[in-house]
């Protein structure tokens, strides 16, 4: 009898690569602007070379269609933003927005975020890491696929500079409490909430259409901000 294969939780992907269909505009952006905004996972990452300047670097994990990332980058031109997303149409949509609005402080990886953080980002160099509305993996047997777990907290401690922050937001209360427990149990990160639970949405995180609709229906949204001490 063959022994069942053991699964290493550290190597479990926290996403499903859902390619979907890109619109004509997204396809055009992917074809026309890939080299301008997208970085090769196989190459070394030099922030100064990638952005053409030195500036505090913020990483957003799973930026979706890029609406929030484009808005933050436009509102904070003194910061550099590195977006990581596996959904190709979302990458195309973000590049459309960057071109339309003349936003130059965003670069993109179309790749697994954990691999990019582990292999391409230098230690103690990130000013911030954003994780907005990640897949909550509602079923209990899928909770091991959630990106926020103890090994991820260790990775944050390694990549954030002193004073750097991790900001997560979710509309799933169970996942919010799960993240709060994991982040609070880790070492090196301190909760920015005065009551040591959740924070008010900070001004820099845009209110998305999806979030506005949910709030109108009475759904909750929970923000967590932990800072490296």
From TrEMBL:
CDD domains: AdoMet_MTases (cd02440). Keywords: Methyltransferase, S-adenosyl-L-methionine, Transferase, tRNA processing. It catalyses: guanosine(46) in tRNA + S-adenosyl-L-methionine = N(7)-methylguanosine(46) in tRNA + S-adenosyl-L-homocysteine. The keyword S-adenosyl-L-methionine applies. The keyword Coiled coil does not apply. SUPFAM superfamilies: S-adenosyl-L-methionine-dependent methyltransferases. InterPro entries: SAM-dependent_MTases_sf, tRNA_(Gua-N-7)_MeTrfase_Trmb, tRNA_methyltr_TrmB_bact. Catalyzes the formation of N(7)-methylguanine at position 46 (m7G46) in tRNA. NCBIfam families: tRNA (guanosine(46)-N7)-methyltransferase TrmB. This is tRNA (guanine-N(7)-)-methyltransferase. It comes from Methylomonas denitrificans. The gene is trmB.
């Amino acid at each position: 009898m063959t022994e069942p294969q053991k699964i290493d939780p550290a190597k479990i992907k926290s996403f499903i690569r859902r390619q979907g269909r890109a619109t004509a505009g997204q396809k055009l952006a992917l074809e026309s602007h890939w080299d301008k905004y997208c970085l090769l996972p196989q190459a070394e990452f030099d922030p100064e070379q990638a952005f053409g300047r030195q500036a505090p670097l913020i990483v957003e994990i799973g930026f979706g269609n890029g609406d929030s990332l484009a808005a933050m980058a436009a509102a904070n031109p003194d910061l550099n933003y590195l977006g990581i997303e596996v959904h190709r149409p979302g990458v195309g949509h973000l590049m459309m927005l960057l071109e339309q609005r003349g936003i130059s402080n965003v670069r993109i990886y179309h790749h697994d975020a954990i691999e990019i953080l582990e292999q391409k980002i230098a230690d103690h160099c990130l000013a911030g890491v954003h994780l907005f509305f990640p897949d909550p993996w509602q079923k209990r047997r899928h909770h091991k696929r959630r990106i926020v777990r103890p090994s991820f907290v260790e990775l944050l401690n390694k990549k954030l500079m002193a004073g750097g922050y991790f900001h997560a937001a979710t509309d799933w209360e169970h996942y919010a409490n799960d993240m709060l427990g994991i982040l609070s149990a880790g070492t090196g990160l301190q909760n920015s909430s005065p009551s040591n639970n959740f924070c008010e949405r900070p001004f820099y995180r845009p209110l998305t259409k999806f979030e506005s609709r949910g709030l109108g229906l009475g759904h909750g949204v929970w923000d967590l901000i932990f800072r490296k001490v």
